[in-house]
TrEMBL record:
This is INAR1 protein. The gene is Ifnar1. Keywords: Membrane, Transmembrane, Transmembrane helix. The chain crosses the membrane at residues 421-448. It comes from the Eukaryota. Pfam families: Interfer-bind, Tissue_fac. Residues 512-544 are annotated as: Disordered. InterPro entries: FN3_dom (IPR003961), FN3_sf (IPR036116), Ig-like_fold (IPR013783), Interferon/interleukin_rcp_dom (IPR015373), Type-II_Cytokine-TF_Rcpt (IPR050650). GO terms for molecular function: type I interferon receptor activity.
Amino acid sequence: EDSLQSPQDLQVLVVNTNFTLSWSHPGPQRGVTFWAQYRGPDTVGAEWQDLPGCCNVSGTACDFSSAITEYYDVHSLRVQAQHAGHSSPWSRELHMVPEHEAQIGPPGIELQPTNGDIKIKISPPEANQPQKMWIDDTTFKYNLIFWENSSDPQPRRLSVFPVDTIEGLSPNTTYCFRVWATLPVEGKEGQLSPPCCASTTHRGRISCFTRLGVSAAPSPRQNLLGSTGRAAAHPGLGEPLPRLCPLCCSGYLKMYHEDHSGKWQSVPGCQHIPGTNCSISSIITTFGGSLYLRVQAQGGHNSSCLSREVRLDPLITNEIGPPGVKLDISDAVLHIQISPPGDELMRNSYGLSYRILYWKNSSNAEEEPQVKETKQTVATIADLAPDTWYCVRVQALSQHYNKSSALSQEQCTLSPAEQTLPLVLLVTFTVALLAVLVVVLPLGFVLYQAYSKLRYVFFPSCQTPLNIEGFGGHLCSSPYLAAPEEPIEDCSIIESMITYEGNQIHLNDWKHSKESSRDSGNYSNDDNTSGSKGSAETLEKEMV
């Protein structure tokens, strides 16, 4: 028991979802068996469990693929040696995340010779497996290496789609192929598939188009560039003259591990055309994807084989048309309005910016153009010389795609003549003075009239006296005020007689004397009061 040592150098090899645990043991191997245990992500802190497929094994490796079902969590492993009822101490623990350790296995490959070419079909590394380390098979990219099966092979390397055709091969020759998958985002390189060989066949009498390309030409409909497909002028079909039948296929179909040969579609407007080129602008409905094109010629009852495929990326193949330009000058500032080429989808895809070239254009000399760059469709140029012709041309740029348009048509405009400053000031002062005379004077007149009326009504120049008797005064009248009422003195008639010793006086006689005195006129309040007081004193004297 003392001489039984622990296993060392634990390693895990993960290929797709296949897990292999290996280790080394420094002691003698005869009669020694090994026992492995693990703790999964759901048993942290719990007791160790026996690792299925790795209990009581006599070698230094075991397969435990059935025990792992979680590929993105941490797993812990340990191994113990056993001999004659004795057990060694447990080895040092090994911690691993399956997805980090996993390698891409070799993909499957099928070959099919056809008319001098070889059609290749690739199956993903985890095809037909119930458990998968990588769920989306379309994320795989495939590389191919092939060579002639001869004494002096010259390997060639290509990037291929899951279903592709290898062209340009020698007839009646055996070629061998190997494929491996990659995950560019994760930076993983897969394992090579076993070599697979096939022999090419002899090409038939019907020739194929050997030259097919895509070029760009201006498209008035979208103010950008469409595309034209070209092929060999004589495919060897004899009379009548051959007619082209271009076909197209969306690029996204190439990512799938399915045969898309039945999904090619005819290009509208390009069926059975007698020439060797046609416009394919009608099939460019988006700028974000790619298209694949191929051509077949037909003459009489004969048809050529399909040409090789050519890829069309609209954003790369197309050219950017020149923008439109409109000029306007105000206050010695030149305003430039730019009309972007193409539609909004195309502009957003390219991320256009603009280079503005402007210069003075006079009969004496033509200056070198000055350059101004902007990402906006409106730009201004200040500090213009008076009474000078300025010319402008604009160029659209796409830095991401390293593209530039042709320069727009030259647009010129004349800056306004210089104006004298004193004349401007005189005109400004005159206009301001007229505005004051027209607006301020009538307004002042109206306010003055209103003030006069209000003062006359509420604050007259003469005050109305309460009693003007004996003063020779007159009452002020106003058309806006009601006439004041004449003050009337309240009097009471007392029909009684007061008898004193020696004399008897009737109040009627006193009243008659009083009324006679009132006939002489009216009295004011103050005078009336004093008069009343005097009458009372007189009466009192007479009574005495």
